[in-house]
Predict the structure of Translocating chain-associated membrane protein.
Amino acid sequence: MGFRKKSSKNPPMLSQEFILQNHADIASCVGMFFLLGLMFEGTAGVSIVFLTLQHGVTVPATEEQASGSRSLYHYGGKDLATVFFYMLVAIIIHATIQEYVLDKINKRMQFTKAKQNKFNESGQFSVFYFVSCIWGTIILISENCLADPTLLWRSHPPNMMTFQMKFFYISQLAYWFHGFPELYFQKIRKQDIPRQLIYIGLHLFHISGAYLLYLNHLGLLLLVLHYFVELLSHMCGLFYFSDEKYQKGLSLWALVFILGRLTTLIVSVLTVGFHLAGSQTRDPDALTGNVNVLAAKIAVLSSSCTIQAYITWTLITVWLQRWVEESTHQTSNAKKKRSLTKGRSSKKGAENGVESASRVDALPKRKEKSS
C-alpha cells in the first residue's frame, strides 16, 4: 500500500485531509487512553481486556511438566477488543516504517508514482512477512511441532492453545484488519480496491478459520510456508524496482512459488484428509473445536485447495500480462529500428542515385567537347 506524505499546509481540524495526514497520531492517542485506563481502579478492568489476552484457564501440571501449573487459552468474544487494540498498534508501526524507512529510500531512488506505490506495498509486506516467518518458526520449534508432526492435528489438552500461539493469531488478525482502514488512509485508487479487499479477505478467512477450529499448529505451519513464498516475492520486487537487471530473480521466485503451493496442498491433504479421518463424531460441536467430522474436513480441504488455485491463477495471469507487455514492447522497438534503418537506407540510396546520375551526364558532355 502506498503512503500519503504530509504536506506543509495545515488542513482544518478533523477534516478529511487532517485525518489522512495524522491518522497514525490519532491511533496513538486512542491507544494511550487504554494505557491510561490501567492507572485507575474503575477503568482498569475495561482497559485490561484490550491490552492482554483473555479467556485464560489454569491447567494443573502433568507428569511431563511437574513444575507447577501453566496457563492455556481458548477464544471468546473478548478477543475482538484485543484485536482492535493491536490493530491500532499495527497502524502506528505501518506509518513508522513508511516515514522513517521507505520514504527516505524513495527520495534517494526518485521513483515514479506507479513504482513508488508498488515499492511501498512490497516494503510494508516484506517487513511483516519477515517478522511473521521468524516468529512462527520459533513457535513451531518451541512447541515441538517439527519434532512431533502429530501435533498438527491434535493438541494437549484439546481445544486449548498456549500464550504465544494465541498472541500470534491475535496479532495476525489485527494486522489484516488494519488493512481496511489503510485503504482509506492511503487513498488507494478505486480500481485497486477490489484486489486489495480480496487479498485481505482471503487471509482473514483462513486465519480466523484455523483460529476458531483450533487447527492452530496446522494453520501456523501453512502460514509460515505461505509467508515465506510471499516474502521472496516482495523481496524480488524490491530488488527489481531498485534495478531492472534483477529481473531473473522473478523467474527464480516463480519456481519457489509453485513449490510452496504444492507443499501447502500436500500438508493440507495429509493432515486434514488422512489424520482427521480416524474416527467420525456423531455430535459435532464446532464451538469447542471438534472438527473431526466429514463436513469440517471437506470445508477445510476445499478452502485450502481454492486459495491455492486462486493464488496460482493470479500468478499465471500476472506473468501472462508481463509476457504480453514485453512482447509488445519488443515488437514496438523492432518496428522503430526497422523504420530507422529504412530511413537511413533510403537516404543513402538517394545520395548514390544523385552521384551516379551526375557521372552519367558528365561522360557525354566530355565526348561532345572532344568531337
Q: What stands out?
A: The radius of gyration is 31 Å. The CA atoms of residues 178 and 185 lie 10 Å apart.
